[in-house]
Write a structure and sequence with these properties.
The complex is a heterodimer. By secondary structure, chain A is mostly helical. Chain A has a single domain, classed as MetI-like (MetI-like fold). Helix content of chain A is 75%, strand content 1%. Chain A has eleven helices and two strands; from the N terminus they run H-H-E-E-H-H-H-H-H-H-H-H-H. Chain A has a two-stranded antiparallel ribbon. In chain A, strand 1 and strand 2 form a beta hairpin. Chain A starts with 10 loop residues before the first helix and ends with a helix. By secondary structure, chain B is mainly alpha-helical. Chain B has a domain of 205 residues: MetI-like (MetI-like fold, Orthogonal Bundle), CATH 1.10.3720. Chain B is 68% helix and 5% strand. Chain B contains 13 helices and four strands. Chain B has a two-stranded antiparallel ribbon. Chain B has a two-stranded antiparallel sheet with strand order 2-3. In chain B, helix 4 crosses helix 10. The two termini of chain B are 31 Å apart. The chains are: A mainly alpha, B mainly alpha. Chains A and B meet through helix 1, helix 3, helix 4, helix 5 and helix 6 of A and helix 1, helix 2, helix 4, helix 5 and helix 6 of B.
Chain lengths: 291, 315
């Protein structure tokens, strides 16, 4: 057929392949463009409307019906997520230590796998579980304790995994040196490894905190809602929180309600972005890598 | 130390067991009452709450009470699979663009920016959907889609107000696309330069290298990432609750029709279910939660088998 010494392709074929490539890359660029644009638009809308709605009175007043301020919700969001963090931090870090330092067998593999499963459990399922156990069975009713415990379950696998990863990044030589100096497990883990891995562990805890502040579904039927500032009671008193304002108030037909929803969304998003930025920066500093 | 930390680690299996156990225990009466009809019939009704309670199979119920969730299964599966389809298209395209075209120095920062989509809370997506996306689509995009797809009954008018299946799927797409981009990007960056060099030296264009050489080896990774993303889409609550139109007992006739999903339905219906004096409605919601739990465990096992690594965490 064709002369083997002439190894050029037909011109039409070259043109067709170039055209396919150009079309394909245009589509790929468009795909990236759509995602980036959506991201920018979401942030832009939240910032523009949120900042316009924000004022000193919104921060200092409580919600009154569909108006007022967000003071009670801000306090409630902090109480709920910090409470959950206090519950989950000791447990999650301990499990992370186990998986990184002692977990080589089947049991550890199972824990790792189930922890991944727990990440994937829909948050509304956790919320419903919290409702039938904590709220109904234990009789805590809508309360800070019920909301915080539910959030803690949601955060647990994140803390476990980030702690394990942070500890694994600590060089083996450090462990060897610590054991060679006669340290026992307890001393090596608590005094040497945790100290070396502290930035990574803290990062994980902070990311889990941002997760908790942005959640709504697990709180709907555990924390409830209240127009008043949380008074410090752990049970039998419902708590206000910011994400509830976003979900519930944007559906109201009043401008005052919408303003509160925008302001709440702005506060949540700016908090999450700040923590994300800080932790990424910290990670890059401490581990010399950009994530 | 070893024993103490191992004991702490046991809480993870324990928590999952307790969640499953409590849901099964609580839903038991509803499971017996509903039987298989729960999955095969359509219609959710708490019956006539003013009538005298009756006994059905020895269970106290109200006349006319029936719990069939076909409309929820259809809404959940349709929105999630549609979202997965869009997410594959956008995710693969964007990742190829970021790893093969954009200068290497910009690859990480730009991917991080796109993956920030996963850090935005569900309820903020819902807000964005209500304030911008649903009205925007109903006004500018859906009329176009309807005109182009006039012959296809599923795409034809009426388009409604923008709250429904397609809008839910599009929001879900943005929420799950980071799973695909993150996993695929890491897999592509891990491919050594030899493959690319070999393909280019054979005269392939860069696009052919990307689609026929690089992507070809990623089938398993893509399916694993896809199942993981699907699992998240199936269980997503707040955003869907806010833009789905919250259909009750109706099946979607077109792509714009209101739907509801299992997760959104649990969040939306608890108040009304609490009005049921027999408690069967609340317990049937627990049965839905149990189905969601089973789905999430199943998708995790599948993606784990395919990916052989842990899924990326949010953020």
């Amino acid at each position: 057929m064709s002369d083997p010494s002439r190894r050029t392709l037909p011109r039409a074929q070259i043109a067709r392949r170039r055209l396919t490539a150009a079309a394909g890359w245009s589509l790929a660029a468009a795909a990236f463009g759509i995602l980036a644009l959506a991201m920018i638009h979401i942030l832009g809308l939240t910032f523009v409307r949120g900042l316009a709605a924000l004022g000193p009175r919104i921060l200092t007043r409580n919600t009154e019906g569909t108006g007022g301020g967000l003071h009670n919700a801000i306090v409630g969001t902090f109480a709920l997520s910090l409470g959950a963090l206090l519950l989950v931090a000791p447990l999650g870090v301990t499990v992370g230590i186990y998986l990184s330092e002692f977990g080589h067998g089947r049991f550890a593999a199972l824990v790792r796998f189930l922890s991944d499963v727990l990440v994937g459990v829909p948050s509304i399922v956790l919320g419903y579980f919290g409702y039938i156990t904590l709220v109904l069975k234990f009789g805590w009713r809508f309360s800070l304790a019920a909301g915080a415990v539910t959030l803690a379950i949601l955060m647990l696998p994140y803390v476990v995994r980030t702690t394990e990863q942070a500890l694994r990044r600590v060089p083996v030589a450090l462990r060897e040196a610590a054991y060679a100096l006669g340290g026992n497990d307890r001393q090596v883990v608590l005094r040497i490894l945790l100290r070396a891995a502290a930035p990574g562990v803290l990062t994980g805890l902070l990311l889990a905190l941002t997760l908790a502040t942005g959640e709504t579904a697990p709180l709907l039927y555990t924390a409830g809602w209240s127009n008043y500032v949380w008074s410090g009671r752990l049970i039998h008193q419902p708590v206000a929180y910011l994400t509830y304002v976003i979900w519930s108030f944007i559906g109201e037909p009043f401008r005052s309600a919408h303003r509160l929803a925008y302001a709440a969304a702005f506060l949540i998003v700016i908090f999450i972005l700040l923590i994300n930025g800080v932790t990424r920066f910290a990670l890059a500093r401490f581990f010399g890598e950009s994530r | 130390m070893r024993r103490l930390t191992a004991t702490a680690a046991a809480t993870v299996p324990l928590i999952l067991a307790v969640i499953t156990g409590f849901l099964v225990f609580y839903a038991a009466r509803a499971i017996r009452f509903n039987g298989l009809a729960f999955f095969t019939t359509n219609g959710w009704s708490i019956g006539n709450q003013y009538a005298n309670p009756i006994h059905v199979h020895g269970i106290l119920a109200m006349p006319g009470m029936h719990f069939g969730i076909v409309f929820l299964l259809v809404g959940t599966l349709a929105s999630a699979f549609l979202a997965l389809l869009f997410a594959f298209a956008l995710g693969i395209g964007a990742t190829l663009f970021l790893t093969e075209i954009v200068p290497t120095r910009l690859t990480r920062p730009l991917s991080t920016f796109v993956e920030l989509l996963a850090a935005i809370p569900s309820v903020v997506y819902g807000l964005w959907g209500i304030v911008f996306l649903a009205p925007f689509l109903a006004r500018h995009v859906y009329p176009l889609v309807a005109r182009l797809g006039e012959a296809v009954p599923f795409l034809a008018r009426p388009i409604g107000a923008g709250y429904g299946l397609l809008t839910s799927a599009l929001i879900l797409t943005l929420m799950i696309v980071p799973f695909i981009t993150a996993i695929l990007r890491d897999a592509l960056l891990a491919v050594g330069p030899e493959l690319r060099e070999a393909a280019i030296s054979l005269g392939a264009t860069r696009f052919e290298v990307a689609t026929r050489v690089l992507l070809r080896g990623q089938g398993r990774t893509l399916i694993g990432a896809g199942i993981l993303a699907l699992g998240r889409a199936l269980g997503e609550t707040m955003a869907v609750l806010m833009v789905s139109g919250n259909a009750l007992n109706t099946l979607p006739e077109r792509i714009y029709s209101p739907i509801s999903t299992m997760a959104a339905f649990i969040a939306a219906q608890l108040d009304s279910a609490l009005g049921d004096q027999t408690g069967l409605a609340v317990r049937s919601l627990a049965e839905i939660a149990l189905v969601l739990l089973a789905i999430s465990i199943l998708t995790n096992i599948l993606s784990r088998l395919l990916l052989r690594t842990s899924p990326p965490l949010r953020v």
